[in-house]
Design brief:
With 91 residues, the chain is an alpha+beta fold. It is built from two helices and three strands. The protein has helices at residues 2-25, 39-43; strands spanning 53-57, 63-71, 74-78. A hairpin with a 2-residue loop joins strand 2 and strand 3.
């Protein structure tokens, strides 16, 4: 009987420890939004080099003029300098 209770307690503790780890592993931040560049930004730079200009359609259907930049070892279409990465207007 005592062994069963210890096993149940161990299982519950394991679940409580692993739940936050699975949230981190799926690539989402606390708001549930995906972190990192959208797939379109990666695809836009396929076959290009860092510094090449590309245009692609953003998440909201807008046309984005960007430059391919290497970020974390991956070539990605990124906004020009001075333009916030959230797609807003330059400051």
């Amino acid at each position: 009987m005592k062994n069963n209770e210890a096993l149940k307690l161990t299982a519950v503790l394991a679940i409580l420890v692993l739940m936050p780890l699975t949230a981190c592993a799926n690539g989402n931040n606390r708001d549930g939004r995906r972190q990192g560049p959208p797939p379109e930004a990666i695809e836009a730079c396929e076959g290009k080099e860092a510094g090449d200009s590309v245009t692609f359609t953003g998440r909201r259907g807008e046309s984005l003029e960007t430059t391919c930049q290497e970020i974390d070892g991956q070539l990605v279409a990124a906004p020009p300098e001075g333009m916030p990465s959230g797609g807003g207007r330059p400051e």
